[in-house]
């Protein structure tokens, strides 16, 4: 099966449409462009001018498009109410252009690097037939989720709270495949390679090529996934093959996976270098300049939670109780406590917190709240991880790139007619 993404066809250097793409447009339409020779250089036929990302990626219309080049689309707390996030409500974060053409039959995954015994290549079929399949619910959250709240502001996509999801991922364990490849004792890191295209159009540049320490690569839940929620992975989320390493910043979960390098040092691919996906090794004052050598790679994500029901702005009648619910997660750790407050953090009430479906899955919570009188309230949620660390009530540790904002989530609730 070949999937063609019309929007990416012909976007060469600087996004201009080349004459050479005329035939690609014609093929996509199944019609000749009779006077196509008269089209000005760079002209996009009207039928292709309206990018409708919702249609293109089958997304719920309430998701928010932050950027179209590359596509970055954010979800919202009330859309994340499902226990397992469906594709239609999952955020999209791209650093480059989605591969224009995907040939599943010819798709290969190559292992190389200083620390493989010998390079080895697998077809998708090899991976699916030679190794045992596993399914896990894995939480993946963009390192920049919550960036919009930092001050002074950090450049980059201004994510609010919706760059997180927990889907069911099915694939083979990376550790099983690495055992088959044969790796040397000096392996310390892996780095992924993928089929997406750098925004410059330069085929020699990778939009992103990140990785994880070998110990994370060898965890049971680290998958080479070919299914999401029981179906082929949607194109926007990495079809036909994706590395999924839950609990770490989602940037390590490489989509459209074509290669894995086993490194004898920390992987030095695109966006591994400072300051990308790094925070100051020691806390700094807001707005400080931080030298590259003082920035450390983000590994496990911090403890966090989201109230997914009700939607902020809920209106209750006088005396009505409110059943709130949501999810909590803590990177590589487990969430051990979830508390909610209706009085701006003055007092806290313990919520019912479920165990995760498996390690690295988010956990569901619920609590029944009552309100003493009519008026305006906020519901705040605070999770605590198995190390005893809780979410901060204010935006934590400012950092130059605006990563790791795990401040308590808050929703507004009005009680009574005049609330
Ligand atoms: N090949 C490739 N993999 C990638 C990216 C990318 O741009 N290219 N973006 C990364 C980042 S920064 C994030 S947050 C997640 C987003 O995953 P999603 O789009 O499936 O939600 O994919 C990661 N994997
Ligand atoms: Mo990300």
UniProtKB/TrEMBL annotation:
Residues 297-415 form the Moybdenum cofactor oxidoreductase dimerisation domain. It comes from the Bacteria. Its cofactor is Mo-molybdopterin. GO terms for biological process: sulfur compound metabolic process. Residues 98-269 form the Oxidoreductase molybdopterin-binding domain. GO terms for molecular function: heme binding; molybdenum ion binding; molybdopterin cofactor binding; sulfite oxidase activity. Gene3D superfamilies: 2.60.40.650, Oxidoreductase, molybdopterin-binding domain. InterPro entries: Ig_E-set, MoCF_OxRdtse_dimer, Mopterin_OxRdtase_euk, OxRdtase_Mopterin-bd_dom, OxRdtase_Mopterin-bd_sf. Keywords: Metal-binding, Molybdenum, Oxidoreductase. Pfam families: Mo-co_dimer (PF03404), Oxidored_molyb (PF00174). The keyword Transcription does not apply. PANTHER family: SULFITE OXIDASE, MITOCHONDRIAL, SULFITE REDUCTASE. This is Molybdopterin containing oxidoreductase.
């Amino acid at each position: 099966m070949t999937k063609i993404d019309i929007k990416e066809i012909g976007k060469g250097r600087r996004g201009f449409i080349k004459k050479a793409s005329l035939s690609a447009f014609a093929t996509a339409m199944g019609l000749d462009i009779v006077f196509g020779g008269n089209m000005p250089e760079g002209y996009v036929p009207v039928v292709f001018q309206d990018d409708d990302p919702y249609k293109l990626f089958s997304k719920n219309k309430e998701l928010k498009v932050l950027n179209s080049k590359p596509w970055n689309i954010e979800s919202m707390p009330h859309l994340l109410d499902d226990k397992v996030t469906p594709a239609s409500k999952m955020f999209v974060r791209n650093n480059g252009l989605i591969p224009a053409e995907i040939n599943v039959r010819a798709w290969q995954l190559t292992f190389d690097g200083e620390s493989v015994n010998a390079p080895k290549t697998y077809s998708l079929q090899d991976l699916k037939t030679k190794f045992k399949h596993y399914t896990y619910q894995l939480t993946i959250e963009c390192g920049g989720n919550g960036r919009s709240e930092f001050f002074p502001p950090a450049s980059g996509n201004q994510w609010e709270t919706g760059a997180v999801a927990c889907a069911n991922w099915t694939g083979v364990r990376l550790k099983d495949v690495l055992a088959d490849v044969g790796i040397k004792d000096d392996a310390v890191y892996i780095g992924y390679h993928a089929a997406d295209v750098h925004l410059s159009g330069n085929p020699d540049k990778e939009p992103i090529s990140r990785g994880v320490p070998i110990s994370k690569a060898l965890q049971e839940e680290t998958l080479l996934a070919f299914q999401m929620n029981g179906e082929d992975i949607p194109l926007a989320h990495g079809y036909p093959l994706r590395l999924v390493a839950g609990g770490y910043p989602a940037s390590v979960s490489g989509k459209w996976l074509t290669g894995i390098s086993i490194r004898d040092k920390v992987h030095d691919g695109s966006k591994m270098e400072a300051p990308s996906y790094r925070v100051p090794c020691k806390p700094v004052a807001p707005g400080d300049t931080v030298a590259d050598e003082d920035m450390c790679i983000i590994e496990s994500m911090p403890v966090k939670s989201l109230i997914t029901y009700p939607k902020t702005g809920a209106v209750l009648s006088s005396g009505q109780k409110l059943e709130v619910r949501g999810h909590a997660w803590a990177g590589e750790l487990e969430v051990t406590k979830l508390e909610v407050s209706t009085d701006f953090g003055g007092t806290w009430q313990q919520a019912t917190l479920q165990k995760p479906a498996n390690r690295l899955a988010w956990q569901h919570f619920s609590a029944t709240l009552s309100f003493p009188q009519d008026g305006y309230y906020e519901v705040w949620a605070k999770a605590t991880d198995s190390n005893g660390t809780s979410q901060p009530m204010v935006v934590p540790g400012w950092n130059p790139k605006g990563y790791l904002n795990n401040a308590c989530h808050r929703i507004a609730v009005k009680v009574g007619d005049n609330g």
